[in-house]
């Protein structure tokens, strides 16, 4: 038996050594400029639109801000995975099936996102009008790693339907490459977007008609969002609070220790927590994407409860607890009246091959997420208390044989 174990370990090591050069090469392969000068993509005037007629925007209820390079050469303007130095504004709709003619002249049904670039001033005017009708509330979504404009816009539409809130939805789309083996490029583009995103968030937060921003960030997007909130807080005309009040981090690819160390001094100060700011974090021990990120960076991610300290893991095991370590609750000199940080563990109800998007794929997580967006989570009874006061688990309902995840997450338009 001992020999069999050693043989198995040797085979695994041999397999890893064989594929390691391929993985390393793929992960560090550069983003190609392409065969077309980037200036040609944006030469058409549709990349610099004037005021758009109302009928052009009629089927595009969602707002988008993007640093992706647009392709304005064809009838349908597209957003590419290349970066642009200019931030552009647009509108889009929920996914629709359309007949697309390919290069051979054959028509094929394909799911597409209705999209149009917008004049910047018109975009802000339209957002202001929509926000005023909804008491100044806005939902802002920032996507994560391995997303195209199509996949991230589709998720924005799902978040809107799932939340059930009839408020403006703004999607910030940065140039993720949409490929698993382009993580390093995505990380580079995310950092490249820090200035653009923080400038946009500051302008949005400073509008007199913006009363509340519900900010949802997924995966690598969390690393873009937290420094931007810090920037807005430092430059806010109101030193005591901010209208960025409800921050939701889904599977955040953030260094957990970095989050623990800095968050109390910036985003979750006592004054801001007492003024209703809070952060909700969704984590899963089955999140394979963040497991790879942990291996890549060398330290645990905020969105996956790995134990870096083996002695802490052993202590939990000896006490009969799962070996899961979470971000510590913020410590204050004077405790705030309210709770600023809540962690939701979705391990028991995790879905999908990677477990990286439970908040949009798992029925119980979708329901909890919708409640957090609506600030009604105190009425959500499916949370199970854990050994830590700020950590809760979502577990399968024993009275339900099988959860209809698609129905509960409303992944298809009603």
TrEMBL record:
Q: What GO molecular-function term can you cite, just one?
A: hydrolase activity
Question: Does this UniProt record's set of keywords contain Hydrolase?
Answer: yes
UniProt keyword list: Hydrolase
This protein's record includes keyword Ubl conjugation: no
Cross-referenced InterPro entries: AB_hydrolase_fold, DUF900_hydrolase
Q: What is this protein called?
A: Alpha/beta fold hydrolase
Species name: Parasphingorhabdus flavimaris
